[in-house]
Specification:
heterodimer, A: about 150 residues, mainly alpha, Arc Repressor Mutant, subunit A, 7 helices, about 50% helix, elongated, B: about 450 residues, alpha/beta, FAD/NAD(P)-binding domain, 6-stranded mixed beta sheet, 12 helices, 15 strands, globular
Chain lengths: ~150, ~450
């Protein structure tokens, strides 16, 4: 399931996707505007930078910005970096597999179902770009749906 | 133009062309007609599967070589009928000419399924021109064919050897017999280099062989291990090369710590290689090609174990020397050649005198310098262009050819290794057969 870390990361990326191209924003500002603890956001942004989704510059005019166009950044790709392999329960991961204490891997029906669920999650998240997610909900979308 | 409603001309009768024809002809629609044009008149025997030498073998075990992804035992059944009792298991590496014969069989069987639907022509194609309703394919004999679609299946293509024609391509016409004790140099560290070495071994060559490549690596050996299971939900798509490389190395370390083998990880990732490639921005693709490709290739494109062992023995005995260096140039020197190389990590130039330099620097990727008239014509006419990375032809996700101005062709498709700019993992039969099946499904409806 999406952790707080994953959720904060997606919120921060959404905010960065709304910046004019080439412009950077400071961590403190980003943290405040999105109600994310700054220290936590620091760590999240460092991971996103390692994975190539955001770039940073030091100094007075420094800060963070997207490293790639928002239309190319897929939500599923970001969530895997922040939360690890997409999996509704830990035993339903192939590469970061963690067995449950109470059941057998091969016969556990819950796990088999959750393996299907994780692939369905991947399907949705890998086909949604940051641009598309940024357009969901929010004041503009609500307004549009009211006037439509 | 009166292009028949469901007709297709396949240009190129190597493995890719035969696989596409076979998949198209599985469609029971009697109106779906296929013309296969091959300039050398030998079908199923493109660059990969025409080798005449006894020891040139397919570098993939027989169990992975079926023409049809939905019938994975097809090749293995054919092989057992042809050579009963010869192979204990399907984990066997057959001579390439045997695989060429299999492809011929596949084509013949496809043609017999509904007589009259397959036509094969031994002609060279000069040009492909597209109209609003279809294509016209001009042949070198002056005639032309019309159809609704054309598929370019020209496969691997070797460019002229480097060094102003002084270096030689192995098994080309200029690869004449050498005195067995003469020193030779081979450029490249991939499977083509191994082919050249196999040819030399066949002639009982005893002279020293200097193998020059950027990394001085040898392809690894196959081992009969099953791939690990990976789901798309596990793979970190779209991340930087640094990130995915670390993920990949950690997965290998974990697998090996549990008694597994790195090959299982390389093979387990294979179903996702095309998607991984496509999830990267162009600058990461470029970084991969520049820095990781040699390393990736020696692990991904492996050798039959006995062949690998023979090569390792030749290195240990000193007959083969692996040199990590950049090839700088070559001059004629009497009957032989003087090659200049720059050892890796140095600015030093070294010259080595040899009787012959074999250029095994892999297959051609610069389509603008293609030796194939139809590719040259398409580029010149603006109907085709190189992909952004210049490793093949630019195509869209449905393998439609993309013109010089970015227009997507309605009637020209491309299959096989030339689509590697978009798919990357499209060099071997297991991937090409899937691509052909998809294309046949879209054209057949």
């Amino acid at each position: 399931m999406l952790t707080k870390k994953g959720k904060y990361g997606l919120k921060a990326l959404t905010a960065l996707s709304r910046l004019p191209e080439g412009q950077l924003t400071g961590v403190a500002e980003l943290a405040q505007a999105n109600a994310i603890p700054k220290k936590f956001l620091d760590a999240i942004l460092a991971e996103l930078r390692n994975a190539g989704f955001v770039r940073s510059r030091k100094g007075k005019l420094g800060g963070y910005g997207l490293a790639r166009p928002a239309a190319e950044i897929m939500i599923g790709h970001v969530v895997r970096v922040l939360d690890g392999p997409l999996a509704p329960i830990p035993c339903a991961s192939r590469t970061r597999y963690q067995p449950c204490e109470d059941c057998d891997v091969e016969t556990c029906q819950v796990r088999h179902l959750m393996l299907d669920v994780r692939n369905a999650i991947a399907q949705v998240l890998d086909q949604t770009s940051l641009t598309q997610m940024a357009a969901m909900g929010g004041a503009e979308a609500v307004e549009q749906s009211l006037t439509a | 133009m009166s292009a028949a409603n469901k007709s297709i001309i396949i240009i190129g009768g190597g493995a890719s062309g035969v696989l596409l024809a076979a998949h198209l002809l599985r469609n029971p629609d009697p109106d779906l007609r296929v013309t296969l044009v091959e300039r050398q008149g030998r079908f199923g025997q493109g660059l990969a599967y025409s080798a005449l030498q006894r020891d040139h073998r397919v570098n993939v075990p027989a169990r992975g070589m079926s023409a049809f992804a939905d019938d994975p035992e097809h090749f293995w059944r054919w092989l057992q009928r042809r050579e009963p009792g010869r192979h204990a298991t399907s984990w066997t590496f057959v001579p390439r000419r045997v695989y060429g014969a299999y492809l011929e069989h596949v084509l013949r069987e496809a043609g017999e399924s509904l007589p009259g639907r397959l036509r094969v022509l031994s002609e060279e194609v000069d040009a492909v021109r597209e109209s609003k309703t279809g294509v016209e394919v001009a042949l070198a004999n002056g005639t032309s064919l019309v159809a609704r679609w054309a598929a370019l299946a020209v496969g691997h293509e070797t460019q002229p050897a480097r060094g102003k024609g002084i270096a030689v391509r192995a098994t080309s016409d200029r690869d004449t017999t050498l005195p067995p004790d003469s020193p030779v140099m081979i450029l490249g560290s991939g499977l083509s280099m191994v082919d050249a070495w196999v040819s030399l071994s066949e002639t009982k060559h005893t002279g020293p062989v200097t193998v020059v490549s950027r990394n001085g690596l040898l392809p690894q050996a196959h081992k009969d291990v099953a791939p690990i299971t990976i789901d798309a939900a596990d793979v970190p798509f779209g991340t930087s090369l640094t990130y995915i490389t670390r993920w990949f190395r950690e997965l290998i370390a974990e697998t090996e710590a549990n008694g597994g083998d790195w090959r299982s990880v390389v093979d387990g990732l294979r179903p996702f290689n095309q998607r991984l490639w496509q999830s990267w921005p162009d600058h990461e693709k470029r970084r991969f090609l520049r820095h990781l490709r040699p390393w990736w290739n020696v692990h991904r494109h492996r050798l039959p174990p006995d062949l690998h062992a023979g090569l390792v023995r030749a290195v240990e005995s000193g007959q083969v020397e692996l040199v990590a260096a950049e090839f700088v140039g070559i001059e004629r020197q009497g009957d032989g050649a003087r090659a200049t190389i720059r050892p890796r990590g140095t600015e030093r130039r070294e010259t080595i005198d040899v009787a012959r330099v074999y250029d095994c620097g892999g297959v051609s990727v610069d389509v603008t310098a293609s030796a194939n008239p139809v590719i040259r014509q398409l580029i010149t006419a603006g109907s085709a262009r190189p992909d952004p990375l210049h490793i093949g032809l630019d195509v869209d996700e449905q393998t439609a050819l993309i013109a010089g101005d970015g227009t997507v062709s309605q009637h020209i498709r491309v299959v096989g290794p030339l689509t590697r700019g978009r798919f990357f993992e499209i060099e071997a039969i297991p991937d090409i057969r899937v691509q052909c099946a998809k294309l046949a499904a879209t054209l057949g409806t």
